Amino acid sequence: MQLLIALFCGVLFGVGLLVSQMANPDKVLSFLDISGHWDPSLLLVMASALLVYVPGYLLLVRRREKPLVAEDFSLPQKRQIDKPLLLGAVVFGTGWGLAGICPGPAVVNLSGGDVKIFAFIAFMLAGMWCSGLISRWKP
């Protein structure tokens, strides 16, 4: 049951990315180009997502002891802003700004067969692998 619900949520998320144009790199780059021809429409998508998420989180997650189909909630334990978090945010933001795409939409776009998306995924996986090496490295 848990796998079926995860599959449904993943498909729903992917459809949402497609419908909202969040999986369209050109649309995302137009949103990020605040000094040129700025397209603010994705701001409405993000605000709408918050309008759904915040009440759901407050009503469902914060008031329940455990989820319906899992043993416990998978919430972050770390609360501090540290160097790895800041570095990850900078790398993620730089990649998003250069390519106009991030991991979720990239997976959605795999079905289109675009070589650029396959290259993006390959470099993303290489970056994740390098990140793992760096985090285990002790000079």
Task: Lay out the secondary structure.
Blueprint: H1 2-19, H2 25-32, H3 41-61, H4 83-99, H5 103-109, H6 115-136
Helix pairs in contact: 2-4, 5-6
Please sum up the structure shown.
With 139 residues, the protein is an all-alpha fold.
Keywords:
mainly alpha; single chain; DUF6691; 0% strand; 139 residues; transmembrane; YeeE/YedE family protein; transmembrane helix
Overview of the structural elements:
It is a single chain. The chain is mainly alpha-helical. It folds into two domains: 1-75, no CATH class; 78-139, no CATH class. The protein has six helices and no strands. The mean pLDDT is 88.
- C-alpha end-to-end distance: 45 Å
Number of helices: 6
Rg is 18 Å
Strand content: under 5%
Mean pLDDT: 88
Largest sheet: none
Number of strands: 0
